[in-house]
What we know:
Elements: E1 2-14, H1 22-28, E2 32-45, E3 50-54, H2 61-68, E4 76-81, H3 90-94, E5 97-101, H4 113-123, H5 128-142, H6 157-169, E6 175-179, H7 187-202, E7 207-211, H8 215-221, E8 224-229, E9 232-238, H9 239-246, E10 250-260, E11 271-276, E12 279-284, H10 291-299, E13 302-310, H11 314-322
Parallel strand pairs: 3-7, 3-8, 5-6, 6-7
Antiparallel strand pairs: 1-2, 1-4, 8-9, 10-12, 10-13, 11-12
The structure holds adenosine-5'-triphosphate.
Amino acid sequence: MITVTNLRKTFKSPLVREGRFVGLRSLFSRAYREKEAVRDISFTIEKGDFIGYIGPNGAGKSTTIKMLTGILHPSSGEVLIRGLSPQKHRRQVVRHLGVVFGQRSQLWWDLPVKDSYDILAAMYRIEDATKRRRLGELEELLGLGEFMDTPVRRLSLGQRMRADLAAALLHDPDILFLDEPTIGLDMDAKRNIRGFLRTLNRDFGKTVLLTTHDMDDIEQLCKRVIVINHGQLGYDGTIASLRERIGLPTVVKITYRGKVSVPESWELPFQITEQGEGVLTVHCNRQEMKAMDMLRVVSGWGDMEDVHMEEPNFEEVIHRIYQ
Ligand SMILES: Nc1ncnc2c1ncn2[C@@H]1O[C@H](COP(=O)(O)OP(=O)(O)OP(=O)(O)O)[C@@H](O)[C@H]1O
């Protein structure tokens, strides 16, 4: 559905020189600073995917999204959406795209929310009956009713984000590009937005590419993550295999009824990091062994009562890959 091939974007900005006759000199020779924001990125996205596009600040995420949506032209390489270039066939492609930039609203600041929808409907040539039906559905899913008549500038951040999502979906696109849609929201608002995005993907089959610094967004929503760092692709795959690849240990807490007898050595490479009265904490690397095999060993050391497993912290996993 989306193919990105050897995509590059280099920004050229004029160097600010200091000293005398600067203006005169720059008339004859202009020096530029080059910034390779995206360097040779390739990936494909299938229909129905829910992908987290993540990376540290300045990694090149927004620049990629801007090229995917046709706002920016690549320096080289190509983007194809449903077989068409968003740069060359902008009109045809944007019909299939819904875009939300969390930091910037596409709604008209001083107008009531519903007026923005009227303008967008006219721009996309959506018939009145279709507009009313879609708005009705979106109103129900996103709870827009309470602020339809309120000017956008008076909305809370959570309300504005819901209003923006509805605006991006009004023309019923099948692909959504979301750049930080939960930024600055409180826990409740984040939960609402996540629930909505999950419904869009699972029940309505929308394909979603999500950029976020919130690792809970990623863990709760994305089947696959693409990691970009310094403009280059660092990882593309499932969260589970990312965890495995980074190889942080799973922490397992085992409780015993009564005494535990820990032998001097055992045959598997797991470590005991804490030992208390009837309790063991074990670090077990899933790359090296199955947790079940470790449990088989420790169950022989006493009368096992309970097992509690903690997967490696996802923030920590991501931190490792950003380094
Ligand atoms: N119009 C521009 N002109 C010059 N440099 C730019 C321009 N837009 C972005 N850059 C630079 O390109 C790099 C990538 O920026 P981009 O906004 O794509 O990063 P990002 O991954 O979205 O970061 P963040 O998480 O902070 O939003 C940065 O170094 C940025 O300063």
